[in-house]
Amino acid sequence: MKTTRRGFVGTIALGTAASVLAGTSLFNKSAMAQTRAADKSGIYDNGIMQLSSNESARGPGPKTIAALHSHVTKRVGMGYAPDHVNELRDGIANYYKLTSANVQLATGSTPLLQGSVRAFCSADKKFVTPMPTYSTSLSTARQIGAGVEVQSLDSSLGVDLDALAAAAPGAGMLYLCNPNNPTGTVHGPGAVERFVRRVMREVPGTMIHIDEAYINYAKAGAMETAVPLAMEFENVFITRSFSKAHGLAGLRIGYALGQEQTLAKIRDAWGMGDVNMLGAIAALTALEDKEHIAWEAQENAEIRDMVVGAFREMGFEVGDSHTNHIFVNLRRPAREFREACLQHKILVGRDFPPMEQTHCRISLGSREQMETAVEVFRKVLA
Ligand SMILES: Cc1ncc(COP(=O)(O)O)c(C=O)c1O
Description:
Elements: H1 5-11, H2 14-21, H3 29-32, H4 36-40, E1 49-51, H5 62-70, H6 85-95, E2 103-106, H7 110-120, E3 126-131, H8 136-143, E4 148-152, H9 161-166, E5 171-177, H10 189-202, E6 207-211, H11 227-232, E7 236-241, E8 254-257, H12 260-269, H13 277-288, H14 290-313, E9 317-318, E10 325-329, H15 334-342, E11 346-348, E12 359-363, H16 367-381
Parallel strand pairs: 1-11, 3-4, 3-5, 5-6, 6-7
Antiparallel strand pairs: 2-8, 7-8, 9-10, 10-12
Pyridoxal-5'-phosphate binds at residues 54, 108-110, 134, 177, 181, 211, 213, 241, 243, 249, 254.
């Protein structure tokens, strides 16, 4: 999607936005997704600037787009097994210097989040999660009637690793999103290692899931992948997504890294879905295109600095974000701000309890979008 500022402001009538949204939930994704009719008339996302979910605003890099084009051939009619899927698994393994048995592909990382809760949590093995954080695993725990323990963040809106470790007795699994969604905070390698070693020493039966969906957006030196810990401990595994910095959310590809027997338990508990051949070739190309990922991270960082700077200048506190979204203390309900922005055809993030009375998550769009958005934020907050 490319929405230029002029195109966005000039071509979309507010009426379109209002009528599309009438009678539908703001966060009904299908209401926001592109239709063929909208595509033809050049209206994207029903004319609403999407700052409510954390896909890359820039999509995949040119090499990945070219790889997709060149693979639209008669081979898409074949598919048992689809071309390139095993190659993708091997490619990921090589990238991390692991074996293919240490990689589990899935249709986005979502089935891995769901499957791991199903594999490791139950009524008497609680799921422990900070709040607010990414909530798919928590929703799954509730669906299956597992015990749940929800913990507050620390005073700087980071995950409280000591509290998380202290909750291990009686837990089936602890969830650590690093960097965290929605707060954007990050834990460095020393802190993560101490946390993991403490849990493995004190309550070794506990599983630890470290979700690194946003790792490519972390500031240099702020964090490292916990893959070596997953290789050392059977009870630690990592999930990753191609939906963020690699710009492939619509193709739905994610993966877990861990010991073979750990991945087998997740796979046995829930369907991982299939990866299709176009998704596989796109993911493989995107993974290998390190230059593009570095550019994407830099572009996001510059846009993030610009938007964070604008909020701070307006007198609002913004956490130190290592992601493509920011979490702003607006000192007012997120809902109020969201509704005001929507009048200007900009949709910002949903409520994140228990902080929805003060904080709002804003996903970062393209440079042009965010220049427009900052003007709107200034007006709405004036
Ligand atoms: C932290 C985190 N993990 C996992 C996901 C799931 O993404 P996907 O299923 O597209 O890989 C998301 C999506 O927003 C996320 O924010």
